[in-house]
């Protein structure tokens, strides 16, 4: 019994000694960790602050560079309008500059390769293919095709559809106005040219009012009595809804018939319509709103 008691006491003594040793080791390790933390924590704070400042500065530089590129694009479109009005041509160097600026804009706006850059390249390829068909039918000039394709590299698909609507509206009004100016410039005082001039001026005004209403500008409201009557009768409401469509068809057919009777081919600066659509997108902020949030700080 004494033998077993002495062994038990020895075991208890060893366990207590081991516990004290482990406690001392744990305290030593905690002290060492505290010393390391006290030495390196201030340095870690400085590193974190430096990285945060670098990230903020990088975002600000990207934002500034993005707006510089957008300003350059606006200036290029204004130059395209001026040259197209003066000589009915858009220089290749101008279209090339717009196209080559697009990758810089992708980088500055932090556009992802997929699907961002891929969608812009696909949109540009589709635009070029469709515009080549119009070029083959002699409905678009080569400079117009290149400018619209270059803009497709910048503008996202949703905003590009808005650009096409604006381009069509402005081009339609511009064609009618140029046709009226061409007829008036002919100097023929016979009855038919004067009648054609009156019809073209009326068609231009109608097209301008429709384009203004389509683009969110001033429009001609319906009289209150007619609006109330249309709300109560389905047939009258449908007739009023179809009236603009019928009127536009008549205006288009009448203007085309007059323009085809002219001896000289009408040279319309459609580059003005394309550039106006691009400037419209820039001015309304549709292009900026479609950019990633990281690019805007």
Question: Would you give an account of this structure?
Answer:
This protein is mainly alpha-helical and 297 residues long. It is 83% helix and 0% strand. Helix 1 runs antiparallel to helix 9 (270-284), helix 4 runs parallel beside helix 9 (270-284) and helix 5 packs across helix 9. It is globular and about 65 Å long.
Class per helix and strand makeup: mainly alpha
* Unreliable stretches: 1-23, 30-41, 293-297
* Helix-strand string: HHHHHHHHHH
Q: How can the largest sheet be summarized?
A: none
Q: What fraction of the residues are assigned to beta strands by DSSP?
A: under 5%
Rg (C-alpha, Å): 36 Å
Extended strand count: 0
The rounded distance between the terminal residues' Cα atoms is 82 Å
Tally of DSSP helical segments: 10
What coarse outline follows from CA principal-axis ratios? globular
Q: How confident is the prediction overall: mean pLDDT?
A: 76
Query: Which range best describes the helical content: under 10%, 10-25%, 25-40%, 40-55%, 55-70% or over 70%?
Result: over 70%
Question: Can you tag this structure with a few keywords?
Answer:
about 300 residues; mainly alpha; 10 helices; about 85% helix; globular; disordered N terminus
Task: Kindly summarize this structure in a few lines.
With 297 residues, the chain is an all-alpha fold.
Secondary structure blueprint with pairings:
Elements: H1 2-87, H2 92-108, H3 113-136, H4 142-152, H5 157-185, H6 191-214, H7 224-232, H8 234-260, H9 270-284, H10 286-289
